[in-house]
Write a structure and sequence with these properties.
- Helices cover 39% and strands 22% of the residues.
- It contains five helices and seven strands, in the order αβαβαββββαβα.
Length: 181
């Protein structure tokens, strides 16, 4: 891991640690443009890997679309199953190990997300540019990831989606092991 990236992750872990010490719980909203790929992936890993901590996870975009089929397929390919709970233009999903949580695309200020005192993690440059200030966020951290959408329709598509999922997983694991409470 590059030193600059490690510093970003350490900074995020420190903010989470501080908030947990002060408030005994923390809300984290991961923000991207369409809430269809990177933000959903990070929300999933934050929820999965924060067991035993009072960390509530959310995600949203600057616009709502739907969870990308390639994300669902890539999760399935690494053994993380999902099912549609509610069908439609923007289906609602559950993942096999997170029965109490649903995933769907929404705007970051959606009523289902916290409106104040949350940590905002911005994971794409477009959302970073579009949202220099995130109303209600106590902390705003820019932690960009390359968009696997760039490989849609290519032979490398699934490989790149899995790489993105695994990178975010590894970084969230690092963050979780760095949290001091």
């Amino acid at each position: 891991m590059k030193e600059q990236r490690k510093q970003l992750l350490d900074s995020l872990a420190a903010v989470i640690s501080t908030e947990l010490k002060l408030n005994n719980s923390v809300d984290i909203t991961v923000i991207c443009t369409h809430n269809s790929r990177r933000s959903q992936i990070m929300e999933y890993w934050l929820a999965s890997l924060s067991e035993g901590r009072n960390i509530n996870t959310y995600s949203g975009g600057t616009v709502a679309t739907k969870l990308a089929d390639n994300v669902l397929e890539a999760f399935n390919s690494i053994g993380i199953r999902n099912e549609i709970v509610k069908n439609g233009d923007n289906p609602l999903y559950k993942f096999n190990n997170l029965e109490s949580k649903t995933f769907f695309s929404k705007e970051y200020n959606d009523i289902s997300n916290p409106s104040e005192d949350f940590i905002a993690i911005v994971v794409c440059s477009s959302a970073d540019y579009d949202c220099p200030i995130i109303k209600g966020a106590k902390h705003r951290i820019y932690l960009p990831y390359d968009d696997p959408k760039a490989f849609d329709g290519t032979e490398k598509s699934m490989e790149e989606y899995v790489k993105c999922i695994e990178l975010i997983r590894d970084e969230v694991k690092y963050i979780m092991t760095s949290i001091e409470v």
